[in-house]
Each structure stands twice: as structure tokens, then as C-alpha cells.
């Protein structure tokens, strides 16, 4: 099936084309400079947004200097 042929139906059974998919890179890199480069390259190629991968302690609300974060911080 091609993207062009993808049709969804509303509650009444009427066909509606869905919106185009959004393609994003979810990731980070080894340091801030490489991460910035990765994001800028994606945006320059038409990427419409950023999905940033934070380290696990940050995602869980811990400071990187917290004792529970030490095994995860690099």
C-alpha cells in the first residue's frame, strides 16, 4: 500500500485522508557540540521538529550530580 492510498474513516464511515506523517530523529550524541550538529543537520534537511533524548536521571527529575544519578552519568 502506498502512502497515497492510505485512507482512514470517520465515525460515519466517510473516507478521510490522514495528515502526513511527521519524521523526527529521537537522539542525542556524545557531547553538546555533536548533538547540536545532529539537530541542525536534520533541520536543514527539512525535519520539522526535535525530539531530544535526555539522560535517564534528567528524565526522572534528578540532577546529574545527585548520588542516585552517578551510575548513569558519564
Describe the structure.
This protein has 74 residues and is an alpha+beta fold. Helices cover 23% and strands 14% of the residues. It has helices spanning 32-44, 56-59; strands at 7-9, 15-17, 26-27, 51-52. The strands form two sheets. The chain has a two-stranded antiparallel ribbon. The longest helix is centred in the middle third of the chain and has 13 residues, at 32-44. The model has no long low-confidence stretch (mean pLDDT 79).
What's the structural blueprint in terms of helices and strands?
Elements: E1 7-9, E2 15-17, E3 26-27, H1 32-44, E4 51-52, H2 56-59
Parallel strand pairs: 3-4
Antiparallel strand pairs: 1-2
Number of strand segments = 4
Total domain modules: 1
Average the pLDDT over all residues and give the rounded result: 79
Strand order, largest beta sheet: 1-2
| Beginning-to-end CA distance, first to last residue | 44 Å
Overall morphology = elongated
Radius of gyration: 19 Å
What portion of residues belong to β-strands? Answer: 5-15%
In which range does the helix fraction lie? 10-25%
DSSP helix count? 2
Q: Structural class per helix/strand content? A: alpha+beta
User: Sheet bearing the most strands, described?
Assistant: 2 strands, antiparallel
Unreliable residue stretches: none
Q: What's the order of the H and E elements? A: EEEHEH
